[in-house]
Structures are given as structure tokens and as C-alpha cells.
């Protein structure tokens, strides 16, 4: 591979959408941010210089970061944030991965505006496992707030209430004509008849899973989270924030005298408010006169079964070129209830969360408090005292009926606890949605690894019977999985990457409320099983 250099200048920029102009944090003044391109085996060197008042860090979402954990990016986990007028160079090699990923800010809610595609092509002279498309197109789904998203979340954290929702969804930053004062900000995809296009779809929205469809066109899914899958056809996709999906779009053999909306709108089952609006882009044929425009039909907002039926269709290729390496046996099992909860209102304060408390969210009833020094630094330099403890529970201390009446006490514990795994531990994690404060799906994202989704279901996970149906033959491999609303999902991975790795809900609202935990994977004995020391420009807290 070769080394590719990028420079990210973090700058404020005025951007107007929905007739609303605001100053936002951007990379190089671009919204969405610049495309980062590489080939499998290349080294990426990205110098990030912070020119804004906010702290920031950048995460390369889905990159394995093998022996390069210092470049992963989550603030207070693998690094302290990059402060104003400081810089940090992210330096990592892309090993054994090709496909569509994205990069985004990993500090507070800055990823609302700081995100962009990360496209990894196969090595030279290596082709896709499908016919070469006529053209490739990247479509980032995002979310637009008229307000400054940092103000939205800090107000929510102070009052303990749910945050204000966004005003719009967008395709490549453009909300489209279904919003007021937005027709000029419409994403248009111009196509030729009789061709195949590869669409690289990325859900970079902050807080919503999104349905996506293009009127009168069937899509063939070929990749998820930068891993090829057995191709299958669908009219509607659903993607959680943090998930990417590559699809083939076959255009009509003869250009029709019509154009076609592509729409994105949320899937949501939780309580309270959400942004119930629809982003629209337009698929246009080059020679057509566009007399009519067709609209696709999307599932209803809370179509949990449609989501389950779609996500269960994903299968690994599982062939000799792309074998499945799912652990057939497990060294260490975990059962993590994930979901919302609350915490007491501090004295002399009024809280606007549930029953006068504050909203919180947790894994195994632990709402992760961010440390003041990055976990990876404290771990590496053996200064963990007062930073974190290694007693994150493997199983709930107080199990309850996760699909029945919630317990009386729904308060979470605020703490910084981690799980420590010896190198090469094979791990199984069953994540169960708790339905406290309403059933809601949670897109769980694991840094530093892909995992295999070996099982999922509705209701309470049954440890005696459900594992009998686990798929250990061709399970899909991903980096983000929706824990189903009112259900569970089981994942397996091999802890073969030394470092500190965050796992969290990719809804930023739940992340801010503490739905996150961290794994420490210890060094192995061989030199290529150890985490090297940090680069000299690693930011200080
Ligand atoms: Cu894409 Cu920790 O996130």
C-alpha cells in the first residue's frame, strides 16, 4: 500500500438551510466534510488542526485500528480532545478491510456537522464480488438542526429533559423539497438508462434510524459496514446511525419520462418527540423530460417487524475468499441489558426529566461517566487509579423481566468501569433492550472490531434455548447492530486487538446520557500482539 496524507482544518463556517443561517463547526469549511479515499493496505495520515473554540477529536468509524488504538479518536477513551489551536496526526493502516465507512467528530454532539465519507477500495487488480458498476455514488444521510447542536445537548443535560429534535434530515447535507424553503437544497442523482450504479449509503444522522427507498427501483444489497454480504433485493432499506450499506441500483433499460424521489424518514418506537419529517432527493434520467415524479412508499414510523425482516436477511458471503471467522466456542459470555433509565435530581435543582428526575441511559445499569484523562493513556501508563475500575459486571446484578413491568427503582449507577479481556479471548455478548421508559431500539457500535451477529429475537433472551438457533455458519459481520425494540441480539468477536475500545449506542442523545462502556484488550505475547506507545503529539487533557 501507499501513504495518503490529508489535512483537516477544523473551522467555523456559515451554512444556510431551511432559510436559517448558522455558524457551524466544519472540516475545511465543507458541509458535509471531505471524502477520504484509500485502498486496502494503505496508510492514512490525517493532520487535524483545531481552529475553533470547541474541543474536538475525529473517529474513523469502522476502521479496525489494529495496533493503532491511539488513532481511534473517541474523546476521553483513546485520547484527550484536541484543544483550540492544537493539532493531532491520526496515523493508521487499513488492514483487511475494503468498503464504505465514514469519519466523524467524537466529542459531544459535534458529529452533527463534522462528518464525511471514508471510502476504501480493494487492492489494485482486485475486483468486487459483483459486476463492476458503471459509476459509484456516495450518499450521506444526515440531520440538520436550526440551533447549534452543542447548545441543544448542553441544555438537555442541564435540565435533565429530552433534547430538542432536529428540523430536517438530509442527503449529502441537502434536506430537499419536502421542507419549507428548501427546494434549492435538493440532492439530485443523474443517471443513464440501462446501467448499474453502486450507491454507498451512510447513516450519519445523530439520533434516528432511517428508512430509505427510491420510487419504482429495486435495490440489491451487496455490502454492510464495509463487509460484503450475500446479495439480496429490496425496495426499502433501514439503517441505524453508524451503519453503512452498499446497494446496486439498476436503472430502467429505456429512460422513462419521469423522475423518482428517494426518501429517508425515521423508524421510531420510543416515547416522546422525534423529528417526524422526510428528506427527499431526486433520481433523474439524463434524457428524460421529467414530466411526472414518483414517490416511494415507506413503512410506517414504528414498523418494527419490517425492520426485523430486513435486518435478518443479511448473511456473510462465507466463501473461500471471504471466510467466516465467527468464534465457534466462547471463552467469556456477557449479558448486557441496554436502555434508558434515570438519575436523581441534584438538590437545589429542578429537573425536567421523567417524574422530576434526569434522563440517563446505561449498559447493565451502569451509566458511564467520562473520565478526565483518556482511558487508553491511564491504562498504558498504568495510572488508572481514580480514573477507572476494572469491575464492569458481566451479568446484571438485579435481573428483571425486560419485556414486563419495569422495576420500581429505575435509577442508574454513574461510574467509569471497564471489562478487561486477555488477548485473543473469544467473546459473546447478548444485549437485551430493557423497555424502561418505553421500548426503543439501540444501535450499538463497537470500536476496534467487527462482530458477528449470531442471533436476535423479540422478548426476553432465553439462555437455555435461544443459543441452539445461533447462526455459526454465515452470520453477518458488522460494526453496528440495532438491539431490537423489545428484544435482544447476540454478537461474537475475537478480542485480538490490544487497546481500549468503546462500545456505545450510536444515538448521540443516548450516548450523552451514558449508554456506553469500554473494553480493555490486553497485549499478547508476540511483538505483533502489543499496542505500541503513543505518538508524541497525543493531546493532553
Ligand atoms: Cu461512529 Cu463511537 O462512533
Low-confidence stretches: none
The computed structural class is mainly beta
Q: Can you say what the CATH homologous superfamily of the largest domain is?
A: Cupredoxins -  blue copper proteins
* CATH third-level topology of the largest domain: Immunoglobulin-like
Ends distance: 34 Å
Q: Give the distinct bound molecules.
A: CU-O-CU linkage
What is the overall pLDDT average?
97
Number of domains: 3
Strand order in the sheet with the most strands? 10-9-12-17-14-15
- Work out the radius of gyration: 22 Å
Q: How many strands?
A: 33
Specify the CATH class of the largest domain. Mainly Beta
Q: Quick one: overall form?
A: globular
Gross CATH architecture of the largest domain: Sandwich
Task: Walk me through the structure.
The chain contains 4 helices and 33 strands. With 541 residues, it is mostly beta strands. It has 3 domains: 126 residues, Cupredoxins -  blue copper proteins (Immunoglobulin-like, Sandwich), CATH 2.60.40; 187 residues, Cupredoxins -  blue copper proteins (Immunoglobulin-like, Sandwich), CATH 2.60.40.420; 198 residues, Cupredoxins -  blue copper proteins (Immunoglobulin-like, Sandwich). It has a 6-stranded mixed sheet, with no helix packed on it. Strands 11, 13, 16, 18, 19 and 20 form a 6-stranded mixed sheet that branches. Strands 22-21-26-31-28-29 form a 6-stranded mixed sheet. A hairpin with a 2-residue loop joins strand 14 and strand 15. It binds CU-O-CU linkage. CU-O-CU linkage binds next to strand 5 and strand 32. Its EC number is 1.10.3.2. It comes from Dovyalis caffra. Keywords: Apoplast, Copper, Glycoprotein, Lignin degradation, Metal-binding, Oxidoreductase, Repeat, Secreted, Signal. This is Laccase.
Amino acid at each position: 500500500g501507499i501513504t495518503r496524507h490529508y489535512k483537516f482544518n477544523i473551522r467555523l463556517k456559515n451554512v444556510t438551510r431551511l432559510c436559517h443561517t448558522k455558524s457551524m463547526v466544519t472540516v475545511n469549511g465543507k458541509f458535509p466534510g471531505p471524502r477520504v479515499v484509500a485502498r486496502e493496505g494503505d496508510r492514512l495520515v490525517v493532520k487535524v488542526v483545531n481552529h475553533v473554540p470547541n474541543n474536538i477529536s475525529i473517529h474513523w468509524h469502522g476502521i479496525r485500528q489494529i495496533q493503532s488504538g491511539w488513532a481511534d479518536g473517541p474523546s476521553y477513551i483513546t485520547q484527550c480532545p484536541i484543544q483550540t489551536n492544537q493539532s493531532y496526526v491520526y496515523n493508521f493502516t487499513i488492514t483487511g478491510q475494503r468498503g464504505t465507512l465514514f469519519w466523524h467528530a467524537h466529542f459531544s454532539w459535534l458529529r452533527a456537522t463534522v462528518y464525511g465519507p471514508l471510502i476504501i477500495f480493494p487492492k489494485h487488480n482486485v475486483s468486487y464480488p459483483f459486476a463492476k458498476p458503471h459509476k459509484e455514488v456516495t450518499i450521506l444521510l444526515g440531520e440538520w438542526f436550526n440551533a447549534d447542536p452543542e447548545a441543544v445537548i448542553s441544555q438537555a443535560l442541564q435540565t435533565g429533559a429530552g433534547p430538542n429534535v432536529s428540523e430536517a434530515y438530509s442527503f449529502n447535507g441537502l434536506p430537499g423539497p419536502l421542507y419549507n424553503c428548501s427546494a434549492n437544497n435538493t440532492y439530485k442523482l443523474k443517471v443513464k438508462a440501462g446501467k448499474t450504479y453502486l450507491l454507498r449509503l451512510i447513516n450519519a444522522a445523530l439520533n434516528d434510524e432511517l428508512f430509505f427507498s427510491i420510487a419504482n427501483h429495486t435495490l440489491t444489497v451487496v455490502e454492510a459496514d464495509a463487509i460484503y454480504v450475500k446479495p439480496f433485493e429490496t425496495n426499502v432499506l433501514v439503517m441505524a446511525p453508524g451503519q453503512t450499506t452498499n446497494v446496486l441500483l439498476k436503472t430502467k433499460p429505456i429512460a422513462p419520462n419521469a423522475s423518482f424521489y428517494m426518501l429517508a424518514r425515521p423508524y421510531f418506537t420510543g416515547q416522546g418527540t422525534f423529528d417526524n419529517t422526510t428528506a427527499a432527493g431526486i433520481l433523474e434520467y439524463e434524457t428524460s423530460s421529467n414530466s411526472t415524479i414518483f414517490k416511494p412508499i415507506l413503512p410506517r414510523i414504528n414498523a418494527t417487524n419490517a425492520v426485523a425482516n430486513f435486518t435478518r436477511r443479511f448473511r456473510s458471503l462465507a466463501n473461500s475468499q471471504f471466510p467466516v471467522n465467527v468464534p465457534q466456542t466462547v471463552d467469556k459470555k456477557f449479558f448486557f441489558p441496554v436502555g434508558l433509565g434515570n438519575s436523581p435530581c441534584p438538590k437545589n435543582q429542578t429537573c425536567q426529566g421523567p417524574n422530576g428526575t434526569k434522563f440517563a441511559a446505561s449498559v447493565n445499569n451502569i451509566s458511564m461517566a467520562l473520565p478526565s484523562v483518556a482511558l487508553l493513556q491511564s491504562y498504558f501508563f498504568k495510572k488508572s487509579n481514580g480514573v477507572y475500575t476494572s469491575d464492569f459486571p458481566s451479568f446484571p446484578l438485579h435481573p428483571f423481566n425486560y419485556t414486563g413491568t419495569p422495576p420500581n427503582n429505575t435509577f442508574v449507577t454513574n461510574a467509569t468501569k471497564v471489562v478487561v479481556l486477555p488477548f485473543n479471548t473469544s467473546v459473546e455478548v447478548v444485549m437485551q433492550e430493557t423497555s424502561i421508559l418505553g421500548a426503543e431500539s439501540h444501535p450499538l457500535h463497537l470500536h476496534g472490531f467487527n462482530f458477528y451477529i449470531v442471533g436476535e429475537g423479540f422478548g426476553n433472551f432465553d439462555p437455555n434455548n435461544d443459543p441452539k438457533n445461533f447462526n455459526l455458519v454465515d452470520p453477518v459481520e458488522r460494526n453496528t447492530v440495532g438491539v431490537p425494540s423489545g428484544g435482544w441480539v447476540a454478537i461474537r468477536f475475537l478480542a485480538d486487538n490490544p487497546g481500549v475500545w468503546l462500545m456505545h449506542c450510536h444515538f448521540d442523545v443516548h450516548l450523552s446520557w451514558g449508554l456506553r462502556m469500554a473494553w480493555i484488550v490486553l497485549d499478547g505475547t508476540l511483538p505483533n500482539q502489543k499496542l505500541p506507545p503513543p505518538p508524541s503529539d497525543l493531546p493532553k487533557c
